[in-house]
Design brief:
By secondary structure, the chain is α/β, with parallel strands linked by helices. It has a single domain, classed as Class I glutamine amidotransferase (GATase) domain (Rossmann fold). The chain is built from six helices and eleven strands. It is globular, with a radius of gyration of 16 Å.
């Protein structure tokens, strides 16, 4: 255990095109944390987790709409109910224990579902949210768009920005009418899709729809505000809490 480099659990499951678990680990390490994988391919007992000071819930396959009481759309992609249950347990553990929690893409959506919200199962318009194939037909490229940051939100305090330019790789989404009771909308896209959520009253719980861990964000000064400060603030909160 190193108090200066707090241990941060990062959920890991099936490989996803365009996403790499190591990108999360690299971002955490660059911000001063010690990343540690927690596998979510089987049921998870939070009481058996290793000592830690923070939790990151990552991107991945679609969330099973059965979790929020809806029938599957014909446009629903691959789901993994075991992963849904394991990551929901991680989120609930962090919320109950007051442990800093950072939820990204799928994790952001699951944060909403865990609180009683629902999801739009498919964005019909590809632009600007959905990923596309690269010129080689294999690699995955981001969509890009602006988000407006809510005045007075934790996200506004962290980034110091009224707007951010972010990447986008999703087809499920949180709409304003689907936000869970008690969550704060911290950012929205121009088309109204919710892009960030916060948990009022929790020491540090933030979810973002974009992928701040991807190298394309940190490497570009014009984009880094939506990436690097988020990991730095998260790791700082983990360090301040201690415990891992």
């Amino acid at each position: 255990m190193n108090a200066d480099r707090p241990t941060i659990l990062i959920s890991r499951a099936e490989p996803i095109p365009g996403q790499d678990w190591e990108d999360y680990a690299t971002s955490v390490a660059a911000a001063g944390g010690a990343p540690r994988a927690v596998e979510v391919t089987a049921p998870l007992d939070a009481s058996g987790l290793p000592l830690h000071a923070g939790v990151i819930v990552t991107g991945g396959v679609d969330i099973d709409p059965a979790r929020y009481g809806e029938a599957p759309s014909e446009r629903l992609g691959e789901v993994n109910p075991v992963r849904d249950e394991a990551e929901a347990a991680l989120i609930q553990h962090a919320l109950r224990a007051g442990i800093p929690l950072f939820c990204i893409c799928r994790g952001f959506q699951l944060l909403n579902v865990v609180h009683g919200g629902t999801l739009l199962q498919h964005l019909e318009a590809r632009e600007p949210h959905r990923a596309r194939r690269g010129a080689d037909g294999v690699s995955i490229e981001s969509g890009w768009h602006e988000v407006t940051v809510t005045v007075g939100s934790r996200l506004a305090s962290i980034t110091g920005r009224a707007t951010l330019r972010v990447n986008s790789l999703h087809h499920q989404a949180v709409e304003a009418a689907r936000v869970a009771p008690g969550l704060l909308v911290a950012a929205v896209a121009p088309d109204g899709v919710v892009e960030a959520l916060e948990v009022p009253g929790h020491p540090w719980a933030l979810g973002v729809q974009w992928h701040p861990e991807r190298a394309e964000m940190a490497a570009d000064p014009a984009l880094a505000a939506g990436a690097v400060p988020l990991f730095e603030a998260f790791v700082a909160a983990c360090r301040a809490r201690g415990g891992g």
